[in-house]
Design goal:
Elements: E1 19-26, E2 30-37, E3 40-46, H1 51-67, H2 74-78, E4 87-93, E5 96-102, H3 106-117, E6 124-128, E7 156-160, H4 164-174, E8 181-183, H5 187-196, E9 204-208, H6 210-222
Parallel strand pairs: 5-9, 6-7, 6-9, 7-8
Antiparallel strand pairs: 1-2, 2-3, 4-5
Length: 232
């Protein structure tokens, strides 16, 4: 994750066997990265979006190198790995495009926001957070999320979840005007409102913590927009 060296004793990070030498995020459709490996340069085109995808790919390839496995089919295999459910997942809501993004901590939020920004998103947003034991009860970490970077683009945002009030307060301080905020705690009602108010030819971006993500996706499944999350 970073280089280090001590000028006093000369102790330094060993030269990595696998290293990412270039990354290019192609909007929300994919990521191209170049890896240096003991077998030579490896160019990967992965149908997932984000700089973090390069880290994941490097880790997978490093495991293969560590096990002594050939990299013959690595590029082909990784080219077939689409996003897991909720990881910038594209859903057709009866003709309306929806992007479903799981984010539960500052790192995942900021990485997701950077990927969305590559296509000028989010503009029409539904954002949900709940303070269950699974999601975490303390939302102080919301102040470490770079919501300020997305604020100028957001045209309208529906805020939902068990702590919609706290989330709305954070977005207010990020620079999203109150007139653009709608608070609807119930997830189903929030989804309906966000879709109903969506301008023509726009797409809805949903940023959600774990529990509301499952709730929203289950509702989409009941409406026939997607399958069960383990069958993606």
């Amino acid at each position: 994750m970073g280089d280090y060296a001590c000028p006093g004793c000369g102790f330094r990070r060993p030269a990595p066997d696998v290293a990412v030498t270039a990354v290019e995020v192609a909007g929300l459709d994919g990521t191209r990265c170049v890896l240096r490996t003991p077998a030579g340069k490896l160019v990967l085109d992965i149908p997932q979006s984000g700089v973090h995808i390069a880290y994941d790919a490097a880790a997978a390839v490093a495991i293969m190198v560590g096990l002594g496995l050939p990299l013959t089919h690595a590029a082909e295999s990784l080219a077939a790995v689409g996003p897991a459910f909720g990881r910038l997942e594209k859903i057709d809501a009866n003709g309306t495009p929806v992007i479903l993004a799981f984010a539960k901590n500052p790192t995942s939020y900021n990485t997701t926001l950077r990927a969305l920004a590559s296509e000028g998103e989010p503009r029409q947003l539904l954002i949900a957070a709940s303070n269950t034991l699974v999601d975490g009860e303390d939302f102080g970490w919301l102040w470490d999320v770079d919501f300020e970077s997305m604020a100028p683009r957001v045209e309208r945002v529906v805020v939902s979840g068990t702590r919609a009030d706290e989330l709305a307060n954070r977005l207010h301080y990020a620079g999203i005007q109150t007139a653009r905020l709608t608070i609807i705690e119930d997830r189903r009602a929030a989804l309906d409102n966000a879709l109903t108010q969506l301008p023509q030819d726009a797409r809805l971006v949903i940023l959600s913590g774990y529990t509301p993500l499952i709730e929203l996706r289950d509702e989409m499944r009941r409406r026939g927009w997607t399958g069960r999350y383990w069958a993606v």
